[in-house]
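Hello,

Our lab assistant flagged a job as stuck in the queue for most of the afternoon. It eventually completed. Since we weren't sure the result was trustworthy after the delay, we are filing this so someone can double-check. Below is the sequence as submitted and the structure that was eventually returned. Let us know if re-running is recommended.
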Amino acid sequence: MSIPPINEPLVSVLLPVYNFPNIEKTVNSILKQSYNNFELLICDDGSKIKPVIDNYDDKRIKYFENKINIGLGPTLNKLIKLSDISSKYFVTVEQDDHYKTYFIKDSI
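-- returned structure --
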C-alpha cells in the first residue's frame, strides 16, 4: 500500500453486515481502490450467520459487532461515531456489491 499524499482527505467506508457471511468480494473490491486514503469500518449487526473477515491483514479495516440486531440506521450511526475524527467523507457500501477500482475517487 502506498502512502497517500498529505492533502488527500480521509474517507470512511461504512459496511453494515447482516446474515451475509461471504463479504469477501465486497471487501476485496474496496481494498483494491485506486484511492488509498480510506478506512473500512465493518459492523456485523447481530447476525446469526457471522461474516468471514479473518482472511484480512489490512490496518485500514476496523471490525465491530452488535450483540443484537439494532437495524441499519443505528448501525450506520455507530460506524460514523467510531470513524476516524479526521474523516472528511463517508460512503456506505452494500454487503453483496462489487465496486469498481475508481469508486471512492469518483465519489470524492
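-- support follow-up --
The delay was a queue issue, not a problem with the job. The result is valid. The CA atoms of residues 18 and 47 lie 5 Å apart. The chain has a mean pLDDT of 92.
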